[in-house]
């Protein structure tokens, strides 16, 4: 499994992904699930992936190849597409096509492959936008009412987001919220695992403002996790029923 | 959907279930999902149900009918079965049979029906036992290492249980823990809904020690829910990253 979460806030976007992939329970590996594309000052795009690794890797490779093609056009490169909506459509159609190809290969074994993605970005002169792309290529977008999107193992980490994330949440609080959301998920589901990739895209920066890989032994993350456990236990102890 | 949780503690067992059932999103009803069987001083059994209502109702009706049959035997009545392990087997085999019957009826429409149950109980001279019965009739049992079992929409409410529930948790704290676990689930998933049914079975009481129906407007539950939200927000605010 996987857990990725993206927040669309007044001050910017905060993204967090884990890195665990597994084929069954006994074949566990570490793969990056967050990918960034930048044309600094013009455009920034970040994509997070969940689902079958063969689908997500091929999709990302095709998108990357199109960006790097010297003859790329606004129709083929997500760094040249006229709008972020168009970028979401391009990621969606690439994902849907790869998924259909892989699905066909697997159908002989009565198996299927699926994947979903979160696309975050901003182009010069445009708004920040955050999309969740479904396996079929259709998508939804984060709004003021629902300023976060999740893919993968999303349930364990949702209560904390439901309670603290608003469009006006500061970027510092947003980082804390996604890390605590991940912490709850890591504790409850072994198929989500460290290290983590964190990215912050500030509003109108048109580049990735901050990235951080948080390794398994990260002292700061461990301290935060313990402080949160303590805060929960203390809060629990104080409640009367 | 449904959310039911059972805790097996040194001092007793604490059970909580919601009451929402739905056929699709637009046909929502309220049905009790917690059922108790008592032979006070001799035996107490509580069963919580999740899944297709047609399966769970028929299963419970057959179990109840067998208990009330004046010619019931240790082979047919869960109030006469020699051990709680045998009770779990009887509930499992009844559930599996009903499920298979309903599944066969539905197969013509390419649909299926499934259900799972939690069985908690103690007989005179025996230990308290807590089982999770799978749709196929097999089951697992709560232990010191894993003192709680959940059925239905279990993920949202698991982090709080993971953090605070131990076999030595007091019954008062246990009630608080299951109510807060339910509170997180209610907030994040509309298909789990009030009212709630709470039951406590104290060790060696051999009867249901306490039952409480918590209605949608319950002032005490609302106050607890708000206190918990406040504790989470305060705890969140105090954490530094």
Total number of β-strand segments of chain A? 12
Helix content of chain A: 25-40%
What fraction of the residues of chain A are assigned to beta strands by DSSP? 25-35%
Strand order of the largest sheet of chain A: 10-1-2-11-12
CATH topology descriptor of chain A: Glutamine Phosphoribosylpyrophosphate, subunit 1, domain 1
- Count of the domains of chain A: 1
Q: Order of SSEs of chain A, N→C?
A: EEEEEEHHEEEEHHEEH
Poorly predicted ranges of chain A: none
Q: How many alpha or pi helices of chain A?
A: 5
Note the overall shape of chain A.
globular
GO molecular function (chains A, B): peptidase activity
Pfam family, one (chains A, B): Proteasome
Keywords (chains A, B): Hydrolase, Protease, Proteasome
InterPro entries (chains A, B): Ntn_hydrolases_N, Proteasome_sua/b, UCP009120_prtse
Describe what this molecule looks like in 3D.
- Two copies of one chain form a homodimer.
- Chain A is an alpha+beta fold.
- The first copy, chain A, has a single domain, classed as Aminohydrolase, N-terminal nucleophile (Ntn) domain (Glutamine Phosphoribosylpyrophosphate, subunit 1, domain 1), CATH 3.60.20.10.
- Chain A contains five helices and twelve strands.
- In chain A, the strands form three sheets. Chain A has a five-stranded antiparallel beta sheet, with helices on one face.
- In chain A, strand 7 and strand 8 form a beta hairpin.
- In chain A, helix 1 packs across helix 2.
- Chains A and B meet through helix 3, helix 4 and helix 5 of A and helix 3, helix 4 and helix 5 of B.
